UniProtKB/TrEMBL annotation:
This is Leucine-rich repeat-containing N-terminal plant-type domain-containing protein. Its main location: membrane. It comes from the Eukaryota. Belongs to the RLP family. Residues 1-21 form the signal peptide. It comes from Gossypium lobatum. One of its GO terms (cellular component) is membrane. One of its GO terms (molecular function) is ATP binding. Pfam families: LRR_1 (PF00560), LRR_6 (PF13516), LRR_8 (PF13855). The chain crosses the membrane at residues 458-480. It is a single-pass type I membrane protein. Keywords: ATP-binding, Glycoprotein, Leucine-rich repeat, Membrane, Nucleotide-binding, Receptor, Repeat, Signal, Transmembrane, Transmembrane helix. It is found in: Membrane.
């Protein structure tokens, strides 16, 4: 009897052990079930064989017993995360499911009390953020940016005492920032940008975060004053653009700030007062955007001390009329926007010293004079529209336009040749400019030909030979003409205008000739009814404005023909033979 009883007990014990071994209660099962239900099957890119600790993106503890890290970003996971999957990973400390197409979270995910790092950014999760987020008492980083969360930021964030990084950007969170956030004194970075937050910042906001280095509240409807940030002495980056903040910018320039973006708010006062803030170290400043506020005074910031400044935007304010500020000392400047800042005078040529400048916008001002050469090799965006600029656009600048991303010269009094630009480009980027090519104008992009210098030498050599031959024939003709000169004098005096057809369509006074020479030595040339003259290469350069495109009459099969004026008002046409023609 006793043996039978114990034998039955042993059989039941073994059977129970066998059944429990088959229960799907391991981390490996939960993870594989999660990935497969979210659309990821075993394939060449992801292998479910072997221990879960060896799977891609998985990290186990030192004993290889529990999964403590799961990274499944950018795997194409989609849909609702089912319960009894990742919510059962009791020892999980780090979870990264970013850049997928997840639409909802499981109810048991909020039971992961060991979680320190949670990244669900760039998904499609919608609905409100549950109050259960307060269960993550050990959480240090939470990134829910780029989703469709809505409603209030739960007040239970006050329980996240270890939280260092809070990123809720790019959602639809509404109402005001909860006061409970002031309890998260370990915060180093806060990004609540691009939501629908409104109201004011909680009282004591600045004093609550002694370790805060980055604060981004951009693109909301938050009210506040410059004094709200007065005690954030560890702050290095502040972006409160596109909100409803008021006050003086002077109160913001303090501490160790490197990035300051106050654009599109309601700040007032004279910007010149900023320079009297002796506590701020301008050498720290890298990025400054004060655009679209109500600032006045003159632009007289301590720019000479901001040697590390990379980005400067003061556009659309109410500054007093003033000349272009001195910026030539900002050799590291990459972006400069002074549009609609009441600038007068000229664009300084020293701006060409800013070798890494890629964006220059001085539109909608009262600038006059000519555009400087702007030899900045990195220039990609240029806007000088809506000014009183005049004269010719430098050739060196026009040569860069095909390589630039955007440019606008419209609504000025500029002159240029539209050759090389489509009608659409000329209409949009040069609207209001004069489309003409006057003699001695240099506003066009000159086509540079390979080996042009060598080819030109050969062309000139051929030209000299031709000129010498023609000179001999013309001397003979000139001698015959001298014999009949006495008869010509006796004829009734009259002056007959002649007109040359074809490409040489201009008036002449019997002094028109065609010369083809470009050599730095004197060459005898016969001119009708004129004595022999010695023409040098320098004379031809001067006569044709350095063979400028504006003096081009025609381009034939054998090379271009330029129109010029020699001393004494003599009209000439110079043909340059092209190598290989």
């Amino acid at each position: 009897m006793a043996f039978g009883f114990f034998g039955s007990l042993l059989i039941l014990s073994l059977l129970f052990k066998h059944l429990t071994c088959q229960l799907p209660n391991t981390d490996e099962f939960y993870v594989s079930n999660f990935l497969k239900k979210m659309g990821l099957n075993s394939s060449m890119s992801y292998n479910f064989t072997g221990s879960v600790c060896s799977w891609k993106g998985m990290h186990c503890d030192t004993k290889k017993e529990n999964l403590i890290g799961l990274k499944a970003s950018s795997l194409g996971l989609s849909g609702i995360i089912p319960d009894t999957t990742i919510g059962k990973l009791a020892k999980l400390q780090s979870l990264d499911l970013s850049s997928n197409k997840i639409t909802a979270l499981p109810s048991d995910i909020w039971s992961l009390g060991s979680l320190k790092w949670l990244n669900l950014s760039s998904n499609q999760i919608s609905g409100s953020l549950p109050n259960n987020v307060g269960n993550f008492g050990l959480l240090e980083v939470i990134d829910l940016s780029g989703n469709n969360f809505s409603g209030e930021i739960p007040a239970t964030v006050t329980s996240l005492l270890s939280l260092q990084v809070l990123n809720l950007a790019g959602n639809g969170f509404e109402w005001s920032i909860p006061r409970g956030i002031l309890n998260c004194k370990a915060l180093v970075s806060v990004d609540l940008s691009s939501n629908r937050l409104n109201g004011s910042l909680p009282d004591g906001f600045g004093a609550a975060f002694p370790k805060l280095k980055t604060l981004n509240l951009a693109r909301n409807e938050i009210h506040g004053l410059d004094t709200d940030f007065a005690e954030l002495m560890s702050l290095t980056s502040l972006n409160i653009s596109r909100n409803l903040f008021k006050g003086s910018v002077m109160g913001v320039f303090q501490g160790q700030l490197k990035v300051i973006d106050l654009s599109m708010n309601q700040f007032q006062g004279h910007i010149s007062k900023v320079q009297f803030n002796s506590t701020y170290k301008w050498s720290h400043l890298v990025y400054l955007d004060l655009s679209e506020n109500q600032l006045g005074g003159e632009i007289s910031l301590n720019l000479s001390q901001a040697q590390n400044l990379r980005h400067l935007n003061l556009a659309y304010n109410r500054f007093a009329i003033h000349k272009f500020p001195r910026i030539e000392m900002l050799l590291g400047l990459e972006y400069l926007n002074l549009s609609k800042t009441n600038l007068i005078g000229h664009i300084p040529g020293e701006i060409s010293q800013l070798s890494i400048l890629h964006t220059l916008d001085v539109s909608s001002n009262r600038l006059s004079g000519q555009i400087p050469s702007l030899a900045n090799k990195s220039l990609k965006v240029l806007d000088v529209s809506h000014n009183n600029l005049s004269g010719e656009i430098p050739v060196s600048l026009l040569e860069k336009l095909p390589l630039m991303e955007r440019y606008n010269f419209s609504y000025n009094n500029l002159t240029l040749c539209a050759l090389g630009f489509s009608p659409e480009t000329f209409k949009t980027a040069f609207y209001g400019s004069s489309d003409s090519c006057p003699i001695a104008a240099n506003p066009v992009l000159i086509e540079r030909r390979g080996n042009g210098h060598k080819g030109l030498k050969l062309a000139l050599a051929l030209t000299l030979s031709t000129v010498c031959l023609l000179a001999g024939l013309l001397i003979l003709a000139f001698g015959c003409r001298r014999k009949s000169r006495k008869w010509v004098v006796k004829q009734p005096s009259y002056k007959e205008e002649q007109h040359i057809s074809g490409p040489f369509s201009f008036q002449t006074d019997s002094t028109t000739w065609v010369a083809d020479v470009k050599q730095a030595t004197s060459v005898p040339v016969v001119i009708f009814e004129k004595p022999l003259l010695n023409i040098t290469f320098a004379d031809l350069l001067s006569a044709t404005s350095n063979f400028d495109r504006g003096t081009l009459l025609a381009e034939g099969k054998f090379g271009p023909v330029y129109r010029g004026f020699l001393p004494g008002g003599i009209h000439v046409a110079v043909k340059v033979l092209v190598h290989g023609s």
